[in-house]
Amino acid sequence: MSETSIVAREAAHFGSMAGDWWDPDGASAMLHKLNPVRLAYVRDRIDQHWSLDECKLKPLAGKRALDVGCGAGLLCEPLARLGAQVTGVDAAPELIAVAAAHAEASGLAINYRSVGVEAVEGVFDLVTSMEVIEHVADPAAFVHALAARVAPGGLLVMSTPNRTGLSKLLTITLAEGFGRIPRGTHDYDKFIGPDRLGELLKAAGMICCDVKGIAFSPTRGLHLSEDLRLNYLVAAKRADAA
User: Fold this and answer.
1) Is there a domain that residue 205 lies in?
2) Is residue 56 part of a domain?
3) How far apart are the C-alpha atoms of 196 and 24, rounded to whole Å?
4) What pLDDT score was predicted for residue 219?
5) Which residues span the domain enclosing 61?
6) Going along 23-103, which residue ranges are E strands?
7) What is the pTM for the complete model shown?
8) Would 105 be classed as within a structural domain?
9) Radius of gyration for the alpha carbons in the chain, expressed in angstroms and rounded
10) Is the Cα dihedral 104, 106, 109, 111 positive or negative?
11) Which of 92, 123, 215, 225 is deepest in the core (most CB within 10 A)?
12) Which among 40, 97, 91 has a CA at the least distance from the CA of 69?
């Protein structure tokens, strides 16, 4: 098992995109389109997991949240607005600097750190890691590290591209090929299918309690779907809390 999940070249690649991370038309434009879909899923899982009123404005009030591979804070800031005490970690110090500045300008108190998940102490009610596992050194060790930071009764939510021909076509051949995503962002050989991720979660002492796809259509754009072929989200809880 690797001592750290961080791959230096991956951190450097994403760090080079820090300058316009918050620009919805910049290098991270696809993340801006993806983020509302991910957030809708996270909110639904929060409500389901803790049996909350879906109209509650701050469902995470009194809870601690950790976003691993947080980038410049696209998910951390909504989590903070939902009431959580948020910690965001990312391998790229350039992204953490942008995240901290943006949060301060937005009046949000978020604890940002440029470290791997292995360096994070304590446990959290909610742990999220979006589009990260396909960039780490050792996926099994990474999932174990995530699971170890889920508090008893807590929730883990992850997302990643599926390992399918459709995902390769849309994500790499087309999106990277036509500049919608910076070239070199993805390596198809590191994509992980939902069955394999389920195995990794089980080995880490987690139970997968929900899987949902993120699909694309010309009329709807990116949206939650039962179709897992392009991209998917998983929600899991600790097996000892089942």
Assistant:
1) yes
2) yes
3) 32
4) 95
5) 8-241
6) 64-68, 85-89
7) 0.95
8) yes
9) 17
10) negative
11) 92
12) 91
pLDDT band at 242 (very low <50, low <70, confident <90, very high): low
pLDDT at 1: 38
Give residue 236's Cα distance to chain centre. Answer: 13
User: Which two three-digit tokens encode residue 75?
Assistant: 């998910």
Residues written for the chain: 242
Helix, coil or strand: residue 63: coil
Amino acid at site 16: S
Q: Which two tokens stand for residue 36?
A: 């509302």
The CA distance from 242 to 220, in Å, is 36
Token pair belonging to 53: 């009123």
What pairs with residue 223 in β-bridges? Answer: 215
Number of H helices, E strands in the chain: 7, 8
Please, are residues 146 and 127 in contact by the beta-carbon 8 Å criterion? yes
Q: In whole angstroms, how far apart are CA 187 and each of 17, 43, 46?
A: 18, 29, 31
Q: How many domains does the chain have?
A: 1
Q: Are 162 and 193 in contact (CB under 8 A)?
A: yes
Residue 15 lies in a domain: yes
Tens digit of each residue's pLDDT (9 = 90 or more) over 183-209: 888 899 999 999 999 999 999 999 999
Tokens 């080079």 label which residue?
Answer: 16
Among 28-32, 66-70, 71-75, the least confident range: 28-32
CA 213 to chain centre: 14
Distances (CA, A) of 220 to 33, 173, 215, 223, 232: 11, 21, 9, 7, 17
Strand partners, 86: 65
